[in-house]
Amino acid sequence: MTPLLKQLRLSGILDSLEARNREAIDRKLAFTEFLSLLIHDEVARRDQKKLALRMRRANFRNQKTLDGFDFNRLPGLNRAAVHDLATCRFIDEQVAVLIAGPCGTGKSHLAQALGHAAARQGYDVLFITQTQLMASLRAAQAMGTYERRLQYLSKVSLLIIDDFGLKPLRPPEDEDFHDLIAERYERTATILTSNLHFDEWGAAFASNKMIGAATLDRLRHGAYKIVLDGESYRSLPPAAEKSKPPAAKPQRAARNE
């Protein structure tokens, strides 16, 4: 049986075959019911394998989900709006989600959590910082694979660009970034996070304000905007705690000579 299952690419059935056979005997299941259980197991196994592959390709930094997001630190954040975004309706709408806020307020966590939700719903996702994105395009240019790289970045269902505007986009980076956003406009969904306030995003395009305006116009069209306004979770402990003297080391008992 094993060679035949492998030939049909159904060898995963072997993982649950014995357990399902015992279950079928104990419950006196009909053959069709037994077969249905095996088929459902195989479908679940394949779905899990596809999810694991999407997660690897997504390049997430860590396993950040909405369950681990501390909404209590951000009382002004609309939880209902965030959970609505987690349905991934915005991906079908082919619009952007723009997340702004000071350092350490959870922008990357929230972006990755939405990415995780998308991957679980069958969407291909890529998480990448602005710096990594531009470096990958420069490398592709040097190797003669720029067009192929741009097409991949243009077509991925959800592209998450972290730390937008952390470094200014200078020629030819500003043109590359514009071309990517233009290709994705009204075709796919994009999430951007930034430490800059929305009104300051134009400053990311240091040398060409016209390209910046055209790029941001496409990003803002129909976009969902989220502002995370709160204290950084990376805040240092109070000075009083930091200045506590170290505990005295226990003295060794004197030895009799």
In short:
The chain has 257 residues and is α/β, with parallel strands linked by helices. Helices cover 49% and strands 10% of the residues.
Q: How would you characterize the overall build of this protein?
A:
The protein has 257 residues and is of the alpha/beta class. It has two domains: 2-57; 66-227, Rossmann fold (3-Layer(aba) Sandwich). The protein has eleven helices and five strands. It has helices spanning 2-7, 14-27, 31-58, 79-85, 89-93, 107-120, 130-143, 146-155, 173-184, 209-220, 239-242, and strands at residues 96-100, 125-129, 158-162, 189-194, 224-227. Strands 2-3-4-1-5 form a five-stranded parallel sheet, sandwiched between helices. The radius of gyration is 26 Å and the shape is elongated.
Descriptive terms for the model:
about 260 residues; alpha/beta; Rossmann fold; 2 domains; five-stranded parallel β-sheet; about 10% strand; elongated; disordered C terminus
| Total count of domains | 2
Helix-and-strand structural type: alpha/beta
Number of H- or I-type helical stretches: 11
Name the average pLDDT: 88
**In total, how many beta strands?**
5
Largest sheet: 5 strands, parallel
Query: Mind telling me which CATH architecture of the largest domain this is?
Result: 3-Layer(aba) Sandwich
Principal-axes geometry comes out as elongated
| Poorly predicted residue ranges | 239-244, 248-257
The main sheet orders its strands as 2-3-4-1-5
Q: State the end-to-end CA separation.
A: 81 Å
Q: What is the gyration radius calculated from CA atoms?
A: 26 Å
What's the CATH H-level superfamily name of the largest domain?
P-loop containing nucleotide triphosphate hydrolases
Output the helix-strand order.
HHHHHEHEHHEHEHEH
* Helix proportion: 40-55%
Query: Beta-sheet strand percentage?
Result: 5-15%
The CATH class of the largest domain, by name, is: Alpha Beta
Domain IstB-like ATP-binding: 5-234
Region (Disordered): 235-257
Pfam families: IstB_IS21 (PF01695)
InterPro entries: DNAC/IstB-like, IstB, IstB_ATP-bd, P-loop_NTPase
